[in-house]
Every structure is written in C-alpha cells, then in structure tokens.
Amino acid sequence: MAAYNDQHVDAVELEAAFATMAPNLRAAVLDKPDSARNFATDLLTRRVLAERARADKLDADPVLAARARQAADMVLLDAWLTRIADAAADPAAVAALAREEYRAYPERFRRGDEVHARHILLPSCACVDDKGRAQAEAVLARLKAGEDFAALAAEFSIDKSNAEKGGDLGFFGRGRMVKEFEDAAFALKEPGELSDLVETRFGYHIIRLEARRDEGQRTFDEVRESLEASIAARLKNKARNDYVLALHAEEGFTIDEAALAAALEKLRSIEAPAN
Q: Helix, strand or coil for residue 161?
C-alpha cells in the first residue's frame, strides 16, 4: 500500500492508526483522496524514521526502550479494560435498569414548556452590507405569500447545520437559545405561524412554529436512548475502576518504598536548575 525500499505500511496498520483518529479526521481520510494519501505517507514516514532510529541503536537507550514499552502497555491495557467494561454493560441488563430508574425517579424526567420550530438565518447588515435586512424582508415576504419554508431555508439559510433539513430545530425548551430568539419562538401560538424578523448576534432569523408541548412528564420512549447510554457509561466506568482497585488490593501488588524514594531523588537531581 505504501513502501520505501524494504519498509512498508499495510492495511492492518492503516486500520490501527485510523482507530485513534478524531471523527472529523476519519471522515476526511475516507472522503478525500489527498487526505488518505497524506495519512498513508505519514504512517510510512513514521515507520522509516523509526527504523533509522533502531539502526542507530536508539532503542538500546533504557529510557527510550521503557517509553516504547509503556506506549504498547497503554494500547493493550485500554483494550483489556474495554473488554471488562463491555461485559459489564449487558444490553438486557441496561434496558432493565433504565426502566427501573425511570419508575424510581420520575422527577428527573419532567420537562418544561417546549416549542418545535424551524428557522431561516440570514446575514444582518453587520455581517455583509446594508442590503442584509432588505434580503431578509424579501424572504419573509415570499414566505407570507405561501412559498415553502423548507425550500427557502435550504436555499437561503446560512445556518448550514440544519438548512438541508428545512431549518428544522426540533423541540427545545427555555434556556437553549439566545434570548431574542427564544422570546420570539415562545411568543408564537399556532402551528404554521411566522415571526417577524428577529435580529440576534448571528443575523436575522425568520421562525416558524411547528408545534408546542406543555410542561409534563417525558415518556419512557422519549428518554430511553439517552438514559440507557448514561447507565451503560456508568456501568462501564464502575467495572473499569473496580477491576483496577481489585488489582491494587491483591497480595502480589506491592510498591518498594525505598526504591521509589531513590528513583524520585534521581529525578529531582535531573530537574534541579543548573547554578
């Protein structure tokens, strides 16, 4: 896949490095050929330079050798503890605990008033020029004339996080949006009702109410996914912590205090500023 003389990087090594990447970087590698080539080039460069270091006997340095072992240890211990954690979060047990928690603590699952709204965000005068408000008013006029809100959101909204969804923001409660936007959204009464232009620091918004939901109890189905995820995370963290604490309590797990003190004294002498 990638080679330099007798050094090469294969698909397994690509997969191993890919697993450590942030999601946005993974997407770039998968979707952009140049990013994928750069990724493979970086891995091969790492391999070539590491082999040159070995050829020059740098791996014989005891501190560097210990650092290499520690890096390998971290990969393996994480895999081991992940196995322990996953075994503790059996899906059937998690589902049962979620229902039990929902019944035992109903007050945790109440909601305040919520609205379901769509919006179109247009640049204000401060963002571009003095034609900003005129453009927003023109879009609002087209909406009032009956044009499709979702289509105009896809065409004009600068909020790209939801423009392709017709500007749909879903349900949200108070405290989630900037005050000017929140006040305007909660002032709408009937589904389909449009706001006037609402100016915030982001630009001009046109808001359409889709639905209202009064204060009340969230159903189990509404909270099940997030509740199960929270319970699974708690079980996994507990399993990892309990396993490590149990290891520390085993008779064979000891610390040589004298040797530790001597090692720390050596580190102090290394860290001490030169006179």
A: coil
96: left (phi over 0), alpha (psi -120 to 50) or beta: alpha
Q: What SS3 class is residue 94?
A: helix
Q: Where are the beta strands (DSSP E) in the chain?
A: 2-4, 7-9, 110-111, 114-122, 168-173, 198-200, 203-213, 216-217
Q: Are strands 168-173 and 114-122 parallel, antiparallel or unpaired?
A: antiparallel
d(CA 205, CA 208): 10
* pLDDT by 10s per residue, the chain, length 275: 789 888 889 999 999 999 889 988 899 889 999 999 999 999 999 999 999 999 999 999 999 999 999 999 999 999 999 999 999 999 999 999 999 999 999 999 999 999 999 999 999 865 445 577 899 999 999 999 999 999 999 999 999 999 999 999 999 999 999 999 999 999 999 999 999 999 999 999 999 999 999 999 999 999 999 999 999 999 999 999 999 999 999 989 999 999 999 999 999 998 877 65
Domains and CATH numbers, the chain: 1-60 (no CATH), 61-112+224-270 (no CATH), 113-214 (3.10.50.40)
- Termini Cα distance of the chain: 53
Instruction: Supply 76's token pair.
Output: 């393996």
